[in-house]
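Table S2 (text version). Query chain:
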Amino acid sequence: MNAASDLETLEVVRAQHPGAAVDEVKNEKRHSSSFNSSSDAATLGYEIPTAEEMQTLRRISGKIPWAAYTIAFVELCERFSYYGTTAVFVNFIQQPLPPGSNTGAGKDDYQSGALGMGQRASTGLTLL
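Corresponding structure-token output:
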């Protein structure tokens, strides 16, 4: 058997009996120079799917850990904050300081900005 089929067999065993079976099979692999996951799992008393069943049975994913959802949410927040602040940086670099402003905030009909370096410079600096 190759490594991919060994992994599939371990996943099938894990789906049938989570916990101990996979640990027992992994321990057997560590202590044996020739590891055959199908025969080891069968020795432990677990049903192994046939080659036809492996081809035709529907694949069902396992549960996604809450930590994965947390990481995805944090990364989503990071992307929103990055793209949200990019517009502020573009305005700050591209537009000149509005008359009567010390902070760069646009008042009345003026565009917010500060450096007045133009579109070329703002695009170049924000793409770095």
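Notes on Table S2: Residues 3-56 form one domain. The helical segments are 3-16, 20-31, 37-43, 51-56, 66-94, 118-126.
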